[in-house]
UniProtKB/TrEMBL annotation:
SMART domains linked: HTH_XRE
Pfam families in UniProt: HTH_3
Record-annotated HTH cro/C1-type domain positions: 18-64
Protein name per its UniProtKB record: HTH cro/C1-type domain-containing protein
CDD domains per the UniProt record, alphabetical: HTH_XRE
UniProt superkingdom: Bacteria
């Protein structure tokens, strides 16, 4: 069933979801519960009421009237965060800062940005996006107070904050906002005087391109970003190795999506060499890399290339007790790649075991991912009874891969 096939009242009820009661929505809008009930029953819905409800639920009125479908997998809290984040990005870029904004020192802004990255790599994307909202104007206020010629640090903070906004928007499927935020990040990075900043932003833009199916552009930009910061191993700092390793590994990911096996092989060789040089996992500048990251991401690359046997061989060589070195998001992504490889090999029960464990341990993270739904559809062909239980965890129906499902329960495909 398509989004436009629902009535206005049904759309309100779907968007409200299980997290927001009619009474709560009434309080959010300033309307009475009776008015909300009538609106959901299609008995009475004025334009003023519709606009108040749309604003409270964090969607455009075009979504409310069925002209545009909502983004799947987004709960009401996600939509509210994204709307506020969008306003903040555009207002900050236009120089429109809140009257109440107080300038924090650079260390305080940096601490806030680091907290955002920690939330992001834990898979808490809504919380990370919500924290970017106050950080962006704080960074802008700090920039405004710096003397001409002494703004390099402030521009670096602005680049980081905008890049975070772009990452959250891109993951949430808000492509226009992702393009806008990464563009502002690029402007700030170019003024930061930091040799790593432009490459970090360029890699972020390549990721936006990748999710927008612009594979050629993504590969060109990812390659350039990696080459621009390639260090000399003999004197490279751990920060340089971390940033370079994550960049060259991402270039391998993009090349795998294009099916370029030779280029993938070249990049993975450099990725493995960098990881070996580092000796362990490290985080720096919103990136993370190390030998375990290189090994686990190689599994996803093999899956993308259709090399199921190779992916399973790589999985067998990765000790489970070493996965704790990864961030939560990285561990979860590896679990999805592992489950997909097992599904491709028709190891249905093993795939469901891997998938179910990840879904139970990280339900919030999984809600924003595409692979769980894809894996369920693939394994569903086996018609196993367990598929129904795993499907319930992500809100998809076994064997069904089309049509609209409520945004609060459907994986972002």
């Amino acid at each position: 069933m398509q989004w436009s096939d629902y009535t206005n009242g049904e759309r309100i009820k779907i968007l409200r979801g299980k997290d927001v009661t009619q009474a709560a929505l009434a309080e959010m809008t300033g309307l009475s519960v009776v008015t909300i009930q009538k609106a959901e029953q299609d008995k009475q819905l004025s334009l003023n009421t519709l606009m108040k409800i749309a604003n409270a639920l964090g969607v455009d009125t075009s979504v409310m009237v069925g002209q545009q479908a909502p983004r799947r997998a987004m709960a009401q809290s996600d939509r509210t965060m994204m709307r506020t984040l969008s306003q903040t990005v555009h207002d900050t870029a236009a120089g429109l800062l809140p009257d109440s904004i107080a300038m924090d020192e650079a260390a305080a802004v940096r601490h806030g940005i680091d907290r955002c990255w920690n939330l992001y790599w834990k898979g808490h994307y809504t919380e990370a996006g919500a924290l970017v909202v106050p950080i962006l104007p704080q960074a802008a206020a700090y920039l405004r107070e710096q003397p001409v010629g002494g703004q390099s640090c402030a521009w670096g903070l602005m680049a980081d904050a905008y890049r975070l906004a772009a990452y959250v928007a891109n993951l949430m499927g808000a492509r226009d906002l992702a393009y806008s935020a990464i563009g502002h990040a690029q402007t700030a990075a170019d003024r930061s005087g930091d040799e790593l900043q432009p490459a970090l932003v360029a890699s972020g833009r390549a990721w936006v391109y990748l999710r927008d199916a612009r594979l050629g552009d993504a590969l060109s930009l990812a390659e350039k970003a990696a080459v621009d910061i390639e260090p000399r191993f003999s004197r490279a700092t751990m920060e340089q190795l971390t940033v370079y390793g994550s960049h060259i590994n991402f270039a391998a990911v993009v090349a795998s999506r294009r099916g370029d096996k030779d280029l993938v092989k070249s990049y993975l060789s450099q990725s493995n060499a960098t990881g070996a040089r580092m000796g362990g996992e490290h985080r720096a500048r919103g990136t993370l890399f190390g030998p375990m990251t290189a090994d686990t991401q190689a599994v996803g690359i093999a899956v993308a290339l259709g090399q199921t046997g190779k992916a399973l061989d790589l999985i067998r060589g990765i000790p489970e007790d070493r996965l704790s070195a990864l961030t939560e998001a990285a561990r979860n992504r590896y679990a999805m790649d592992k489950a997909m490889a097992q599904a491709d090999a028709r190891l249905w029960d093993a795939s469901l075991d891997t998938l179910e464990k990840a879904l139970v341990e990280a339900p919030v993270w999984a809600r924003h991912q595409a692979l769980p739904g894809v894996i369920v559809q693939k394994v569903g062909r086996a018609s196993t009874a367990r598929v129904r239980r795993v499907s319930a965890l992500i809100g998809v129906r076994p064997g069904v891969d089309s049509g609209f499902a409520p945004a609060t329960s459907r994986t972002a495909l």
